[in-house]
């Protein structure tokens, strides 16, 4: 028996051939298998990843993002850039957030102590294997410790939101 595979996605056909070990030059894919192929639409699509950022110069803190009250917000990654114009003058820089369920206490998403020997910059990027859920209606901020020299910093977060059920 020869089965017409023209109506089936070629990737599906190829996968069937590989899984079943069918050599179509010699034998056809059994009709019972071809007839049971059903298109599937994922009911759980991947979330839309959004980005928020803020840059600050010589300031001690700035808000990168404020979580909405009506959404669950999950951070999937962040990056932090720092540049300084003076040597041997350290700065502590970090991105701070309120973890879900703990609105009265902040946590560091990333924290870096930077003490260059020359005027320079650094950049750190983190991606999380498991998203970090943040408290609704709270800020995610970048902060610098006070320093004598000029400090430029940029904080970026990557996040997605879901409706609260």
Structure at a glance:
The protein is mainly β.
Task: Characterise the protein shown here.
By secondary structure, the protein is mainly beta. The protein folds into 2 domains: 1-40, no CATH class; 50-163, Jelly Rolls (Sandwich). The protein is 10% helix and 48% strand. Strand 4 (91-98) and strand 5 form a beta hairpin. The longest helix has 11 residues, at 10-20.
Strand coverage percent: over 45%
Helix content: under 10%
Q: How many helical elements?
A: 2
Task: List the secondary-structure elements in sequence, H or E.
Answer: HHEEEEEEEE
Report the end-to-end length measured between terminal Cα atoms.
52 Å
Low-confidence runs (pLDDT<50, min 5 residues)? 1-5
* Arithmetic mean pLDDT: 78
Number of domains: 2
The largest sheet, given as strand count, sense and whether it forms a barrel, is:
4 strands, antiparallel
Quickly give the CATH architecture of the largest domain: Sandwich
What best-fitting shape do the alpha-carbon axes yield? elongated
CATH fold-level topology of the largest domain: Jelly Rolls
CATH class of the largest domain: Mainly Beta
Could you list some keywords that capture this structure?
165 residues; mainly beta; Jelly Rolls; four-stranded antiparallel sheet; 10% helix; elongated; disordered N terminus
């Amino acid at each position: 028996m020869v089965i017409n595979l023209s109506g089936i996605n070629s990737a599906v056909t190829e996968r069937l051939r590989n899984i079943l070990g069918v050599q179509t030059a010699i034998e056809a894919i059994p009709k019972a298998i071809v007839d049971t192929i059903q298109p599937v639409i994922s009911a759980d699509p991947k979330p839309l990843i959004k980005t928020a950022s803020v840059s600050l110069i010589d300031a001690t803190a700035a808000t990168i993002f404020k979580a909405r009250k009506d959404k669950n917000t999950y951070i999937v990654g962040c990056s932090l850039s720092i540049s300084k114009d003076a040597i041997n003058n350290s700065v502590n820089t970090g991105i701070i957030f309120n973890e879900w369920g703990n609105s009265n206490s902040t946590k560091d998403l990333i924290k870096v102590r930077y003490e260059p020997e020359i005027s320079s910059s650094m950049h750190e990027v983190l991606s999380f294997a498991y998203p970090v859920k943040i408290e609704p209606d709270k800020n995610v901020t970048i902060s610098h410790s006070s320093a004598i020299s000029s400090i430029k910093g940029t904080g970026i977060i990557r996040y997605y939101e879901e409706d609260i059920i």
